[in-house]
## 1
Amino acid sequence: MTTAVPAPLHDPRRDASNWAPPLDIALHAARDTLARHAKADIHDHGDMLEAATGLDYALRLLVAALDSEAGR
């Protein structure tokens, strides 16, 4: 049993950014991240942690790029 306080991957106050990459770069990064983590071992905590953080980051970049392109 752990006594660590859980911390979210993303904290809007801590991680706020006004910059968004161009859509083609964000899409390339998302595809690259998906490919890198496609064979992650579900039974390996390190693999799952690395995949979760990498995919979270790539998805946030992609959403920011889409929002920026749509003028939101």
## 2
Amino acid sequence: MGLMVAAALAAALAAGQAPGMHVNAEGLNMARPGEAMILAGRIRAASHDWCAVHRAVLTPDSLGDASVCEREMRRRAYVALPRPQRIHFVRAGGQTALNRR
């Protein structure tokens, strides 16, 4: 299964102030716990990297707290998964891994 998770960004981002966040999920089967964990790790890493550069655009009131931006970007990446894949991801423990601190 080839799938690319693209987090939908806030209206300010659509205006060209920051690029979208993309997470490569190609070849991963969300029904397999190990592969769901791989995607969760990729989403966590991508949100951390994205927010290190662009968090002022997404969370201007939380400049000193990167966790606010990262949590929102992880949420958006999860929501961007197609519904059937999201269900498999949750059942395989991916959402729990994604939300760990």
